[in-house]
Amino acid sequence: MNVLSIVLIILFFGFLIAIHEFGHFIAAKVMGVKVNEFAIGMGPKLFSREKGETLYSLRAFPIGGFCAMEGEGESSDDPRAFGNKAGWKRLVILVAGAFMNFLTGVVLILIIMALAGSPSMPVVTGFMPGAEDIAQTGLQPGDQLYSIDGHRIYFNNDAFIFLERAGEQVDVVVLRDGEKVDLGTIDLPYRQLTDENGNQVMKRGIYLGEFQEDTPLTLLRNTWYQAVDYVRMVWMGLGDLITGAVGLNDMSGVIGIVAVAGDVGQAGAEAAGLFGLFINILDFTALIAINLAVMNLLPIPALDGGQILFVFVGGIYRLITKKKMNEKYLGYVNAVGFFCLIALMVVVAVNDVIKLF
Q: How many CB atoms lie within 10 A of CB 310?
């Protein structure tokens, strides 16, 4: 495992959490909420300075940060307290953290594509020996896969992922000469074929992948597609967890993420030296950034999504009773949610350690 890549991913992970909290901080200031402290890092203070009503601090451990707003999770008589602001202002503040993570992920993807180029496009370049009969389905060399079983295909990796999840009969739409062509349901069974190295493999028999020339427009478009792709990956992972397709043993916490990051960084370094390590770590960080954005918006207490849910619940309560919901009750729910979240993190961390050894 590459030590440099582990150090980098820890720093990037801390950076992503700090960026998240910075989003809350900026939105709180704009919305007129009093911020008692904004901290970069966690643990003991290394440096602090009070400016206006806010204490700005730098703390010892570079693993995140926090934005402590007045009246957050507790009642306060201060008219500038978070809980005393209009619902739409609290929503803006709560969404701002996830938005900053998503924006960071998009910027990182744009940097990666500007330096390393866009991913390979899902263009059919031919058929494997013994699978030439695929041409009878209507699929032709030069076709770009547009969707598989209704799932939009942006890049080559998408095609591999959704073909892996598909059955032997696949609904396929392609782009041919710039026009969408619906091929309907075609037979693409796995079969024993011989690859270019002479090995016997179980494949569907399609050669895919073609690089395109990047322009500023295609870079921006592919950056957005990659960001959307990462969001979809998170939702697919959550769906697999809910349906039981994957179990708790397949989940990873910070320890597992760092371990994977080490492998990713090492693979990049072996492939293309420091440049490869840098690109792989940036790509992994972009994925984590967008993962954090999506996960933080889930309606779970102690996450931003849970707070957003409370804003709506509080609004409905106020509409019915003409009274404001006491913040301390929301604080109790948050505390229980936080305890459950920490318990889950501990279980996942133990599982990560077991998998490492």
A: 23
